[in-house]
């Protein structure tokens, strides 16, 4: 009886906590800029970008946080295009294993906004998130009248809130991931971090940061501070030159992290807890940043006593073990044209690219146990394997392709079953979907589904709300993404009509065992004509360019034989059906997963009017589903796959 009462009370308290959390997140969402206003802001961004950091300082002060308070957090600040989150996650794990209390601020979130603020490797629980949210929100709300009713935007507010949380939780280190760019990013009110890092650079957010890698590098280097050590991943020559120039201009030492193989693991295996070929670069950068942090914050003397090194601005002391003689080879350029050493301002010592050090057991454990959801993540279910990666740049998509092809092939060989390969894709903003989709063609998908970053057409929970885009614009973008995919199979682009005719001439029962991506051609199979994808029309929206039910694909292992055709045109179309993946646009992630799963998993029963697929799709033994192109898409998929209730309640 007593146990039952306690259980009932616990459930009631948990429900009340969830309701309060939802209320907090809904209030947070009011700080999102609506789509129309956002478009106007974007058009005027260059005129007002320089005000972002001064405004952030004002917001922080109104919340009771001074710049000195922020500096007391002993911050590691990380910018870059690819791998910022992974690098920060490695830093978090390494310093946790060294026994420090960590705070980690990242963006965006996958499922719930509280994921953006970590304490000791875990997202804030709902109760603490709610409490800290109202602490900051109420202070800002009460002072807005005397500041022209000014309130921070969504990301700016969460940045102020993260600093508040870290101060209240008394963390030993604050690990801060830049949002967009660096120079004008909301996180750049940090004046005296312990170390700054720049991950691999590429083209992203080009409408904001510029359309060349050197322009983007200028923004990313904006987090550099006088006298504060900075470390960069290897970069393209143009980007590296800009980083060097800005480091010299600002007055900070800068060096390039070495290859992961150059570290001394002291006879032990060096393993990384996050999959992906680029993770070795991110791990090396994290090792450098943590090594600097450990050396500058606490250095153990011969007696094992902690000695704190005081920060003194430009005259800040470097750890004593951080100096060494430079060899002639260190001063030479490497084969890639990147400087092995990067000059610092004045007479400061040059920092070599190949500076490595023995790895502690804590470092090795930190790297091996690190986890970062939504990046090269695999989830196995009954008869389905989900491959999730939030790649959204050309370089990260190529890495995703390499990872998926390798892991999917290993799984196929181990299962020895018929496999259906499915791609669920979306990309947003100013990203070039044609360029992002092009590497994915090599994966030989049987089915491709495009959908917006909307988990369900039912009422989304507060964590998934996005007021910055309209439903109409999201659906239009999906159609454009599909159009880009179709263009990859355009006959003129691939120029392979002759080989297709040869396939058709051999008869419709011909089995294509291992077609190369270049042999795929997009043809309207209803009339044998090349499809016109020059524009999206109302007809396209209504019918979604769906292929007929008889369309088949030659890339999964069990083909069915059809009746032989006398007409060469018919044989030609049947050959094309085996070469071109079936593709559809659907209105939500729930719809996309339902279609992709082929009834092999239970999903929300809202899914009506689903397109018909070839009957033999349903006879396959196992489905491999790659979900990529947008971290928000991956987050929505994770919510559904992991069966997280829409009311925000936690599941065990």
Automatic annotation (TrEMBL):
Report keywords, A-Z.
ATP-binding, Ligase, Magnesium, Metal-binding, Nucleotide-binding, One-carbon metabolism
The Enzyme Commission number assigned here is 6.3.2.17
The record's listing under InterPro entries reads:
Folylpolyglutamate_synth, Folylpolyglutamate_synth_CS, Mur-like_cat_sf, Mur_ligase_C_dom_sf
Share an example GO biological-process annotation for this protein.
one-carbon metabolic process
**Example of a GO cellular component annotation carried by this entry:** mitochondrion
Q: Which domain of life is it from?
A: Eukaryota
What is the catalytic activity of this protein?
(6S)-5,6,7,8-tetrahydrofolyl-(gamma-L-Glu)(n) + L-glutamate + ATP = (6S)-5,6,7,8-tetrahydrofolyl-(gamma-L-Glu)(n+1) + ADP + phosphate + H(+)
- Give residue spans, biased composition: Polar residues: 516-536
List the residue ranges of the region (Disordered).
506-540
The Swiss-Prot or TrEMBL record annotates one GO molecular function as:
ATP binding
- Pathways per UniProt: Cofactor biosynthesis; tetrahydrofolylpolyglutamate biosynthesis
Family statement: Belongs to the folylpolyglutamate synthase family.
Q: PANTHER family of this UniProt entry?
A: FOLYLPOLYGLUTAMATE SYNTHASE, MITOCHONDRIAL, FOLYLPOLYGLUTAMATE SYNTHASE-RELATED
Q: What is this protein called?
A: tetrahydrofolate synthase
